[in-house]
Amino acid sequence: MRKKIVAGNWKMNINATETKALIDGIYQEIASYDLTNTRVIISPSYVNLSSALALTEKGIIEVAAQNMHQAKSGAFTGEVSADMLQAIGVKSVIIGHSERRAYFMESDAILAEKVNAVLANNMEAIFCFGELLEDRKSGNHFKVVAAQLSNALFHLQANDFKNIVLAYEPVWAIGTGETASPEQAQEMHEFIRKTIADRYTKDVADGISILYGGSVKPANANEIFSKEDVDGGLIGGASLKPADFAAIIKSI
Ligand code: PEP
Predict the structure, then answer these.
(1) What's the pLDDT tens digit per position in 41-80?
(2) For ligand 1, what atom is nearest to the CA of residue 235?
(3) For the whole model, what pTM was predicted?
(4) Which parts of the chain sit beneath pLDDT 50?
(5) Which residue in 69, 97, 141, 189 is the catalytic one?
(6) CA distances from 133 to 138, 151, 197 (A)
(7) Which of 87, 154, 161, 202 is most buried, taking the most CB atoms under 10 A from its CB?
(8) Which fold has domain 4-251?
């Protein structure tokens, strides 16, 4: 059975003290939840990863990085490698967030290299992708999403997909308050699963968790998560508020 996942993307928000308070707050809020088939992931900034890992030693909450460089090491001032993340105990890395694609020019080819580096270090990639508003308006959204998957992931072996989580995030719905309707999310998730089944096998497609991201809030999480091919969410803004993040987790 596919795991349900609620992952928070904290982006470039909150300092060390606030990180501790947010983690404590989430633990308090979810203390009574049955999370047998649900993973809860948070992704603090690089500088707070070690403290977040220490603060989550008791389990339930997992810690992911928001990005990493594709090279093993070298003259890349300001960058962080997969080896470095793995060495401090990080097990998952968000790759290809639309903000990385838009502001840091991360192409599909670079993202393919990043995915390779994540997997080579025995970590899990939470791979983000999704169409722009103009793609949806012009009816090209399925084509764009298929190309993003194919360009960055379809060089992998079937077996690699046990360490991949997909996060479909229509760019027009990220941080905008605009959410894909549950029907739009289901339609795209079903398409994604079929695209993977066609390239690999139905078993690979059925085994992969596909998260939806884009203005998920306590008020809309239930309906989105009720859709058959939506296995959870990647949450931005609402993941910075313990009560909201917990309410979203409860909706799964
Ligand atoms: C995100 O950044 O991945 C995201 C989904 O943000 P928000 O929930 O704020 O739209």
Answers:
(1) 999 999 999 999 999 999 999 999 999 999 999 999 999 9
(2) 8
(3) 0.97
(4) none
(5) 97
(6) 9, 20, 27
(7) 161
(8) TIM Barrel (3.20.20)
